[in-house]
């Protein structure tokens, strides 16, 4: 797949809704080079992530904002192929956009020509030469997105747009669970977090890994959110007695932020000796944990963030099932926000910040025909 010697095909002009400083979004014209191994995508629907909001509201550290802005946000999205020389993705096809771009894909190289992580098959999710859309490079909030062809995955005909746009977030849960896939057959599993991350972790356990719902317990703090989970074992964390003796083999921490400390330490409390704790929640602060019990129980703590191409395939396959679509549809809003300008985009981000509800905020990009 080494195409590095080939000349550029063309350049393409894109309108980008770039965040230049917190809450200030500008409509900027940028030009992309397009190589033979890349495709041009017109983004169609985007989904707002808490990571996008941390940039938009200025909640990232000052040095991170200074280093990464200006930048177009959004890394969860789908679009339509506009230009491609790859036989597997043709103009007009709907595709899911994989935001985690490995270095070898960006440069049109083979995997063994990339970093030590990729060469050693240690998980190209953590490629040291990789880049991530909407985090250090312009994301999906632009009219023409150029990505490696492998990073644009065709959407099965059975999967509607509003379900397909959830693929990236689902794939992050799939990636996290892949680290304990060999243990899921018989394990008792506990999820800490009643938000979308916890919900999708439960959905992936059910629809991709085929775990019986009665082996999944969910701890949350909001009754209305917990009720949305299909799992019969749902517990309010503020009412539960963690000294009751109930124990689990695998715990997923899906809370993040200021709730990470409590969730991690409660997970340590209820894990069996030799248990596994998967950390998925994101926090900007350091979190103190009970290392004594980690040592005494011989627990394994595994951090998991983002996902890569291989994680999208089983998720899209599962999404063809109407029962999976029904589960995921609980995260969908009553309406998708139309985005026709940078002002629309800024207003939508402000709305997402002010209304941090259980459902996702989806953006319907309406690019002018000339774009």
Tally of extended strands?
Answer: 19
Radius of gyration: 21 Å
Shape descriptor? globular
Unreliably modeled segments: 1-8
Q: How is the biggest beta sheet arranged?
A: 7 strands, mixed
Within CATH, the superfamily of the largest domain carries the name: Medium-chain alcohol dehydrogenases, catalytic domain
Q: How many DSSP H or I helices? A: 13
Distance between the termini: 31 Å
EC number: 1.1.1.137
Domain Alcohol dehydrogenase-like C-terminal: 244-319
Protein name: Ribitol-5-phosphate 2-dehydrogenase
Enzyme class: oxidoreductase
Brief overview:
GO terms for molecular function: ribitol-5-phosphate 2-dehydrogenase [NAD(P)+] activity. By secondary structure, the protein is α/β, with parallel strands linked by helices.
Question: Helices and strands in order, then pairings?
Answer:
Blueprint: E1 10-21, E2 24-34, E3 38-47, H1 50-56, H2 62-68, E4 71-72, E5 76-83, E6 94-97, E7 100-101, H3 103-106, H4 116-119, E8 131-133, E9 136-137, E10 145-148, E11 152-154, H5 161-164, H6 167-178, E12 189-192, H7 196-207, E13 216-220, H8 223-226, E14 233-236, E15 248-253, H9 260-270, E16 271-279, H10 291-297, E17 300-303, H11 309-318, H12 322-328, E18 337-339, H13 342-354, E19 362-365
Parallel strand pairs: 8-9, 12-13, 12-15, 13-14, 15-16, 16-17, 18-19
Antiparallel strand pairs: 1-2, 1-4, 3-5, 3-10, 3-19, 5-6, 6-11, 7-8
GO molecular function, one term: ribitol-5-phosphate 2-dehydrogenase [NAD(P)+] activity
Protein name: Ribitol-5-phosphate 2-dehydrogenase
Organism: Paenibacillus qinlingensis
